[in-house]
Amino acid sequence: MELAEASTLRGVKVMVIDDSNTIRRSAEIFLVQAGCQVVLAEDGFDALAKIADHQPEVIFCDIMMPRLDGYQTCALIKKNPRFRATPVIMLSSKDGLFDRARGRMVGSDQYLTKPFAKDSLLQCVSEFAPKPA
């Protein structure tokens, strides 16, 4: 990763919503190394409870989760006027066209296949993070 790219991610608030502790932890490690502030949530309800307090600038959301799946979570985030503009990147172990299309329908901005590489994760953040003025 380029040094310039690392500094552009410093301080960016990223939320990672995934029911897998392994995925949450690895995403957290990659993001923290890049200088991001990270908020973790283990499912949609957990995320919705934390989102107003933390106001993340980029959200990664797993699709397959108990209780409230990623599509429902994304739709609820996008229905809220305060968070409508917040980029939501869907995470899935399936790389299907159907999943991508369904993600777009609920308002997701991007789609990342698991397991993701550090570079692709950080690339997504730098693509969607608000640019410093």
TrEMBL record:
Domain Response regulatory: 13-129
Keywords: Phosphoprotein, Two-component regulatory system
The keyword Metal-binding is annotated on this UniProt entry: no
Modified-residue entries (4-aspartylphosphate), positions: 62
InterPro entries: Bact_response_regulator (IPR050595), CheY-like_superfamily (IPR011006), Sig_transdc_resp-reg_receiver (IPR001789)
Any Pfam family matching the protein: Response_reg
One annotated GO biological process: phosphorelay signal transduction system
Record-given protein name: Twitching motility two-component system response regulator PilG
Protein source organism: Rhodocyclus tenuis (Rhodospirillum tenue)
Lineage per the UniProt record: Bacteria, Pseudomonadati, Pseudomonadota, Betaproteobacteria, Rhodocyclales
